[in-house]
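Section 3.1: Structural characterization of target chains.
Under the original work plan, the team committed to producing a structural model for every single-chain target entering the pipeline before any wet-lab resources were allocated. The record below documents one such target. The sequence was received from the expression subgroup and is listed exactly as submitted; it comprises 299 residues.
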Amino acid sequence: MPTLFEGETPVDLDTVGSFVAQQCPQWGHLPLRAMTTSGTEHTTYRLGDELLVRVPRDASSEAGLRKEIDWLPRLRDGVDLEMPVIEHVGAPSLDYPHTWTINRWVSGEDASARVLAGDVPSSWADVLAELVASLRAVDLREFAPHELPQGQRGGHVRCRVEALHGQTDPMSGPLDPTPVMGLMEAALDAGAPAPEPVLLHGDLIPGNLVVRNGRLSGLLDFGTLTTGYAAWDLTPAWWVLDRSGRERFRELLEVDDVSWAWGRAFAASQGLLADWVYAPRGHALAPLGARAVAEALAD
């Protein structure tokens, strides 16, 4: 598969096929094909009709995968969406130095195409609100501090503002944060919401949501799972929903003005970064990021 960034561990179809055959000979006869998705942390390969191989691009992505291995069993009973079932945890080898997994295939399609086409049913707002509420309901006091998931998201909006300045990329050039700075400054001016941390998925974007028969039915990729300000998981209001869906989503979660301003800022900044990084690479996340910025600015 083509690499996105310098420093990635390159793999190809033959390499993946070899370590599947070596570690899981019972599946070695199944056809293997590379997939093209809006994901950025892993390369993925369909293995037969029922399985998916997930291969981290680098050590940082592997850390997210290990978090997923640890937390998926803990969340399964509390989240009313289908989530991946890990059938095998692959060991690093001389050919590939990271942990990898084989997951049970989650039937359906990711939500990206429908979101970009403007085909977003109103019922999705209810499903997303229920999902966010179920994650917030996890009692973090039941876990020792070292057991809690750690990630780069979840912090104060001020950190997000600071992160937008001075960014550069070898293909994209310097980042111009101007389009979203009004939203970022409005979030700063709004004050701060309740600081009590909650469990966050951290990446509720269309590519991580599975649609089956028009319904949101599955949730993927827990590599950004973390704890922090609840406003971080309001981002699907702009990444996924339309204006009427946002209003319903906000009503169901009873979101105050400060948290809503923060969520809008997080969605816009994440979208800006996605479009900036991935558009020059021709990656499918770029148009989704551009849409999120447009939705946030239109409100």
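The longest helix spans residues 257-278.
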